[in-house]
Amino acid sequence: MGLIKRITRSRPVQETLGFLVASYLKFVQRTNRFVMEPADAYDRIGPQMPVIAAMWHGQHFMIHFAKRPQDRAASLVSRSGDGEFNAVALRHLGIRAIRGSGARGRDIRKKGGVQAMRAMLKALAGGEMVVMTADIPKISRVCGPGIVTLAQMSGRPIVPVAVVTSRRIDFNSWDKASIGLPFGRGAMVVGEPVHVPRDADAAALETVRQQVERELDAIHERAYALVGSKDPGAKAAPALAGGSRA
Q1: Shortest CA distance to 158 belongs to which of 200, 204, 191, 120?
Q2: How far is CA 27 from CA 23, 30, 62, 128, in A?
Q3: Choice between 81 and 234, residue whose per-residue pLDDT is larger
Q4: Radius of gyration, CA atoms only, the chain
Q5: Are strands 178-180 and 168-170 parallel, antiparallel or unpaired?
Q6: In a domain, 133, yes or no
């Protein structure tokens, strides 16, 4: 590990970075005029708390804007070095971090996926909302099985959430991450709760997985439309057989 990386991953630097990120996000939240859709989202979702708030990767900077002050929440954060200052930032935003992440292949134990699942189940049982990305790393906007499994095991509904701002920086990253800028307009769009039966078989779970994916795509498209933008991470429409028509 190089000197610069060692310095940036030291505890004092991570604490400072996390505090600065949280402070900046609070400033963005205060200086944007947000609209909520549907307008009665909190009235509809409140009685179903605690829920599993689902987001796409790339939305992790601003998703906390949709949390009410009275809602206790925990968020899944990777065990990577970058995840450390994210965990610090979440702490300053009033959200507890659960360390771990989903994984493809044989490294799920190293990633802490099993321990994270247990911790999220415990959080939900204790009345905490759990916030997590629906897609797994490096496969943007394809819902993985983890969030569906969590809903099945916990009995709590999945609620898709999108938060965007009209003024923002869109990064050219695999997850098309965005971070809001001050003094603009914002939209928070909450999708329909998705329930997963405890006795769901593999086919039913796949149907639910696809439902969560479609709902997340739909609310992101709507959120960007509300602020007068196009979703930079939207999936390309499938080509028509035989080519396009004039």
Answers
A1: 191
A2: 6, 5, 12, 25
A3: 234
A4: 18
A5: antiparallel
A6: yes
Look at the chain and report how many structural domains it folds into: 1
Beta bridge partners, 132, equal 54
Domain annotation covers residue 27: no
The torsion angles phi and psi of 31, rounded to 5 degrees, stand at -100, 5
- Which amino acid makes up residue 61? F
Quick check: is 91 in a domain? yes
Give Cβ neighbours of residue 246 (< 8 Å, ≥ 6 apart): none
Structural domain range at position 195? 32-226
- What gap in Å lies between CA 83 and CA 155, rounded to an integer? 28
Amino acid identity of residue 28, one-letter, is V
Does pLDDT of 240 surpass 60? Answer: no
Distant-in-sequence, close-in-space partners of 12: CB < 8 Å, separation ≥ 6: none
Residue 66 included in any domain: yes
Q: What is the pTM of this model?
A: 0.90
Peptide bond before 137: cis, by omega within 30 degrees of 0? Answer: no
CA-wise closest residue to 180 among 57, 56, 54, 59: 59
Distance of CA 211 to the CA centre of its chain: 16
- Write out pLDDT tens, residues 134-188: 998 888 899 999 999 999 999 999 999 999 999 999 998 888 889 999 999 999 9
Q: Is pLDDT at 22 greater than 60 in this prediction?
A: yes
Token pair in block for residue 206: 């796949």
- Residue 161 has a pLDDT of 98
